[in-house]
């Protein structure tokens, strides 16, 4: 079992100095909250590098000025002119200017730069190369980018030394915390909680005409577009099922999902004696982010606790797998292994983009991903087993993306 608590040196990489952090995806939801966490705990953390896609150069340079990060990476080459102009305009004259790398390889290069922790907050399977680069460089990886594990599971697990991968995802952070209290043999099952998304309680027929705006109205979390849409389809919970199986080395038949609409209990571990440990806190990613950055130490005041002076009403209900078949599909993909999870995820990413572009309906996302997964499982590719390298994963993803577009066309 990859249990971060067991392996990480509690004194940190060099006691007495802040942990150096490279933050990938700094301008996104996870990225901006990470900057906040680090600003509030500057005695513990120091940002040395920032990477972003390039859609918001103003924010990236503002973050670099505020944090003092001198290594920047921008994956979209076309953002160069605006980034340079922002530096020219906003960079303090009395400070050395940052080094900025551009292009598709810039983020992975930064992930391998000298640091203690790389927090990967890039959205989507495009984050895989950076995760592998950070692991290869020996850094601790605080992993928000769950798609790294989904797409490149066998490669990531082979590259990660015990304790090198620390989950940021709220459910997996909850599980890692609860697992501190037991041995692998004592674990009966993992129970992931799901908010149920904005369409909880609707039948399949009632999902046919939902709009992108409705899908982006998450009931409890403010997150990026891809993960928020994945929460609405429950694909997010399917991906998290695979993430849990890989991170904690627990069989798929011992991982369950339960709907908990208020997202206060972030997940639970059931032990063999009938005991269940749950981690509870109001929905606020600053808690799991701070814990991952300083794992296994807790950062005081990272987030507010539950207010126990107020009445609490925690509700749990089963998942409606007919209206929301994504978890079952992910279970199939995870059990099949190899590139099947990468295929399922890539098809989903492509169809989510199509949904937001008005090219398909909400139900077409999971229906299309199901079709593409089945095509893969029925093809000769599935027999090939585990990917040998990232190129194999990317080849499978291209295959899946091309076929998902065909499912829309048909
Ligand atoms: N948001 C949340 O609360 C949670 C998120 N996660 C996971 O964390 C990850 C990030 O999610 P979220 O923050 O919501 O997503 P966002 O869409 O809000 O942010 C994504 C970030 O990645 C940047 N980016 C895109 N491409 C690249 C690239 N090639 N190199 C470097 N940076 C890049 C984006 O920059 P730009 O905008 O310029 O393209 C942006 O800064 C996802 O894997 C998600 O599943 C997990 C749990 C909770
Ligand atoms: C905050 C976080 O970890 C998200 O992955 C969250 O869990 C999404 O909510 P859902 O439970 O609706 O998928
Ligand atoms: Mn989550």
Automatic annotation (TrEMBL):
Q: In which pathway does it act?
A: Isoprenoid biosynthesis; isopentenyl diphosphate biosynthesis via DXP pathway; isopentenyl diphosphate from 1-deoxy-D-xylulose 5-phosphate: step 1/6
Query: Would I find Oxidoreductase among this entry's keywords?
Result: yes
Q: One MF term in GO for this entry? A: 1-deoxy-D-xylulose-5-phosphate reductoisomerase activity
Highest taxon above the source species: Bacteria
UniProt binding sites for 1-deoxy-D-xylulose 5-phosphate:
146, 170-171, 195, 218, 231, 236-237, 240
Q: Which EC numbers characterise this protein's activity in its record?
A: 1.1.1.267
Q: Which residues bind Mn(2+)?
A: 169, 171, 240
- The 1-deoxy-D-xylulose 5-phosphate reductoisomerase N-terminal domain extends over 21-153
Instruction: Tell me if Transferase is a UniProt keyword of this record.
Output: no
Q: Which residue numbers delimit the 1-deoxy-D-xylulose 5-phosphate reductoisomerase C-terminal domain?
A: 165-248
Residue positions binding NADPH: 27-30, 53, 56, 145, 147, 224
Catalytic activity, as annotated: 2-C-methyl-D-erythritol 4-phosphate + NADP(+) = 1-deoxy-D-xylulose 5-phosphate + NADPH + H(+)
Q: Give residue ranges for domain DXP reductoisomerase C-terminal.
A: 281-402
Question: Sorted alphabetically, which keywords does the UniProt record give?
Answer: Isoprene biosynthesis, Magnesium, Manganese, Metal-binding, NADP, Oxidoreductase
Q: Entry's Pfam families?
A: DXP_redisom_C (PF08436), DXP_reductoisom (PF02670), DXPR_C (PF13288)
UniProt cofactor(s): Mg(2+); Mn(2+)
Similarity comment:
Belongs to the DXR family.
What exactly does this protein do? Catalyzes the NADPH-dependent rearrangement and reduction of 1-deoxy-D-xylulose-5-phosphate (DXP) to 2-C-methyl-D-erythritol 4-phosphate (MEP).
The identity of this protein, by name, is: 1-deoxy-D-xylulose 5-phosphate reductoisomerase
Species this chain originates from: Jatrophihabitans telluris
Gene from which the chain derives: dxr
């Amino acid at each position: 079992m990859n249990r971060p608590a067991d392996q990480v040196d509690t004194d940190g990489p060099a006691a007495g100095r802040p942990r150096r952090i490279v933050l990938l995806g700094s301008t996104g939801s996870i990225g901006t909250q990470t900057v906040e966490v680090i600003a509030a705990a500057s005695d513990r953390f120091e940002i040395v590098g920032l990477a972003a896609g390039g859609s918001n150069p103003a924010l990236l340079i503002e973050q670099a000025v505020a944090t003092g990060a001198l290594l920047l990476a921008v994956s979209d080459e076309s953002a160069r002119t605006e980034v340079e102009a922002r530096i020219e305009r906003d960079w303090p004259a009395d400070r050395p200017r940052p080094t900025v790398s551009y292009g598709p390889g810039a983020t992975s290069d930064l992930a391998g730069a000298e640091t203690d922790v790389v927090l990967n907050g890039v959205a989507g399977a495009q984050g895989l190369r950076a995760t592998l680069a950070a692991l290869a460089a020996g850094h601790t990886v605080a992993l928000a980018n769950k798609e790294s594990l989904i797409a490149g599971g066998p490669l990531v697990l082979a590259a990660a030394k015990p304790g090198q991968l620390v989950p940021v995802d709220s459910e997996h952070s909850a599980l890692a915390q609860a697992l501190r209290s037991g041995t692998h043999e004592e674990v009966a099952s993992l129970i992931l909680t799901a908010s149920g998304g904005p369409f909880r309680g609707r039948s399949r027929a009632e999902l046919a005409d939902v709009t992108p705006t409705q899908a982006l109205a998450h009931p409890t979390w403010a997150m990026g577009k891809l993960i928020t849409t994945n929460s609405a389809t429950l694909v997010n919970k399917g991906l998290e099922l695979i993430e849990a199986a890989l991170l904690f080395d627990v069989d798929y038949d011992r991982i369950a999902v339960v709907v908990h609409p208020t997202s206060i209990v972030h997940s639970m571990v059931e032990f063999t004696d009938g005991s269940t440990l749950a981690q509870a806190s109001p929905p606020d990613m600053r808690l799991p982010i701070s814990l991952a950055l300083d794992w296994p130490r807790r950062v005081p005041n990272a987030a507010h606790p539950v207010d126990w002076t107020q009445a609490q009403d925690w509700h749990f209900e089963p998942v409606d797998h007919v209206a929301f078949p994504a978890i079952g599909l992910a279970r199939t993909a995870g059990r099949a292994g190899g590139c099947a999870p990468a295929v399922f995820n890539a098809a989903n990413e492509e169809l989510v983009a199509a949904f937001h572009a008005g090219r398909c309906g909400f139900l077409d996302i999971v229906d299309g991903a199901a079709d593409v997964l089945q095509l893969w499982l029925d093809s000769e590719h599935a027999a090939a087993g585990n990917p040998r390298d990232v190129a194999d994963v990317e080849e499978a993803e291209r295959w899946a993306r091309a076929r998902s577009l065909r499912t829309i066309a048909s």
